[in-house]
Design goal:
281 residues, alpha/beta, two-stranded antiparallel ribbon
Length: 281
């Protein structure tokens, strides 16, 4: 028996949100309907897809196996529909992307989106997230993707990772402690300075760069340490949390942002595609 696409869609929403309530909201449905659809899918699968308790909804081993297949089936379904029916999206969307995502999976998603919607042009702006969000609110951008350090900022969460101190891989931290930061406005800089002030850790300013490549060059050369998301500590760098009194930093969240009053299907579809793709990375 083949799985019904509508049931797979509901299953994916529950798995991503880890909540029947959030899935119902995302699908513009009711919690009882979502629950009934999951029961039908579990009956078709012959086993439980979720482990439920009073607090959490988590995937079972069978659910983890099905999730990858479900996303692939739904994406192939969308691709086939676009190829046969065509797209009604047209015009231009202005997308703001943080520099640290430019060489990752996101460009492939944008390319795929433009192939499915050839009458819709995407205009890309690379920059600092804080500035991109300001432009989004000013309606100079239609969508922004990047990391945030302020839980009050609304957005569709992609993933979360620690903010750490990075330094040259084969060097010891100098004394006095040299630090480099991205120029303002930068959430990493603000959080780091706040943590340094609370810890009383002595340090001195040793450099700045508006680009990720420039900052990595400063750090690899052993000229300074800098705060970076853990995933950006690549070759030639190491994590130096706790050394020389460096304080622990909070996590950062990667989020896709759209304006709360923007209900255009082209925008929400792209935001959803980015969120789904991030869940598979």
């Amino acid at each position: 028996m083949a799985f019904e696409p509508s049931l797979l869609r509901t299953f994916v929403k529950v798995a991503e949100g880890r909540s029947f309530t959030r899935a119902a909201e995302a699908l513009n449905s009711t919690q009882s309907t979502v629950s009934a659809q999951i029961h039908r899918l579990e009956a078709q699968a012959g086993q439980a897809l979720f482990e439920r308790n009073t607090r959490n909804v988590t995937l079972s081993r069978a659910g983890e196996t099905l999730l990858g297949y479900a996303r692939t089936i739904l994406q192939l379904n969308e691709d086939a529909h676009a190829a046969l029916v065509g797209s009604h999206f047209s015009g231009r969307l202005k997308i703001g992307v943080a520099e640290d995502l430019v060489d990752d999976w996101l460009p492939k998603i944008l390319q795929r989106y433009t192939r499915k919607h050839p009458a819709l042009a995407l205009e890309l702006e690379i920059g600092i997230v804080t500035q991109l969000l300001q432009k989004l609110e000013a309606r100079e951008l239609d969508l922004a993707v990047g990391s945030i350090c302020d839980a009050k900022i609304a957005g569709w969460r992609l993933w979360q990772e620690p903010l750490v101190w990075a330094f040259a891989e084969k060097r010891s931290l100098p004394d006095p402690l040299p630090l480099a930061f991205f120029p303002e406005p930068c959430p990493y800089r603000e959080l780091a300075l706040r943590a340094l002030a609370k810890s009383g850790c002595p340090w001195q300013f040793a450099g700045s760069s508006p680009s990720l490549a420039g900052m990595r060059a400063i750090v690899r050369a052993g000229l300074a340490a800098t705060p970076l998301p853990r995933g950006l500590v690549g070759a030639g760098l190491r994590v130096v949390d706790g050394e020389k009194g460096l304080p622990t930093l909070p996590d950062v969240e990667y989020v896709v942002h759209i304006r709360s009053d923007d209900r255009r299907e082209a925008v929400t579809t792209l935001a959803g595609l980015i969120r789904d793709a991030a869940g598979r990375t």
